[in-house]
Amino acid sequence: MGNAILVNPIQQKNPVLKFIRNVPYEPSDTIKMDYVVGQTTGVIYLSLRYHRLYPNYIYDRLNSVKNLYVTRILLVFVDAENYHDAIREINRVAILSEFTLVLCWSMEEAGRYLETFKAFENMGTDLIREKVENDYLAKVTDCLTNVRSVNKTDVLTLLSTFGSLKRVMEASTEELSVCPGFGEQKVKRLQRVWKQPFLMNKKRKT
């Protein structure tokens, strides 16, 4: 399929095509999805206003393309008010049909989604996976900055004063309080963390 988005003939008059500007697209009579944005990815497009006029359309449409692609996306343009109930129902249908629901609130946003799906077709998951540093300072910083109001400067202060996380945890209230930037509330929050269990114990039935 090359580097172009394939467009089903039933979508050729969709205004969303005007907003696909950064990747090419071309019509295809052979696809069953509305848009094919990768070798394993297909997209069905739905206007919420259209859904209200023809509520059975999406049920039949998703059923007709079920299991065709590894990644199946239902792109819904929210162009109607009081949409919450309709979105809940569409989400239920998407889950049952094994589609991923993506919402957009403008034609331009819908176009950007289609461009992005295509542009990232061959990208690995490393782009969205959290990057965790391996060195000791990075790990301690990642740990301690989860405590409210503790920042990276505070972590450096603690490690330079006590030498290790173990010694920080063993430090008394008085020892922590003399560290620059550590007031009474910050010390209390930090010490409260040491006393919390890593795993929540389930309440035993009596």
Description:
The protein has helices at residues 48-53, 57-64, 84-96, 107-119, 136-144, 152-162, 165-170, 173-177, 184-195; strands at 5-7, 25-27, 35-38, 41-47, 71-77, 100-104. By secondary structure, it is an alpha/beta fold. It folds into 2 domains: 3-125, Rossmann fold, CATH 3.40.50; 134-193, DNA polymerase, domain 1 (Orthogonal Bundle). A 6-stranded mixed beta sheet has the order 2-1-3-4-5-6, with helices on both faces. The chain is elongated.
Radius of gyration in whole Å, from Cα? 26 Å
Major sheet: arrangement of strands: 2-1-3-4-5-6
Number of strands: 6
CATH structural class of the largest domain = Alpha Beta
Poorly predicted runs: none
Quickly count the helices. 9
Shape: elongated
CATH topology of the largest domain: Rossmann fold
Protein name: DNA excision repair protein ERCC-1
Pfam family, one: Rad10
Subcellular location: Nucleus
GO molecular function: damaged DNA binding; single-stranded DNA binding
Question: Which features characterize this protein?
Answer:
single chain; 206 residues; alpha/beta; Rossmann fold; elongated; Restrct_endonuc-II-like
List the helices and strands and how they pair.
Layout: E1 5-7, E2 25-27, E3 35-38, E4 41-47, H1 48-53, H2 57-64, E5 71-77, H3 84-96, E6 100-104, H4 107-119, H5 136-144, H6 152-162, H7 165-170, H8 173-177, H9 184-195
Parallel strand pairs: 1-2, 4-5, 5-6
Antiparallel strand pairs: 1-3, 3-4
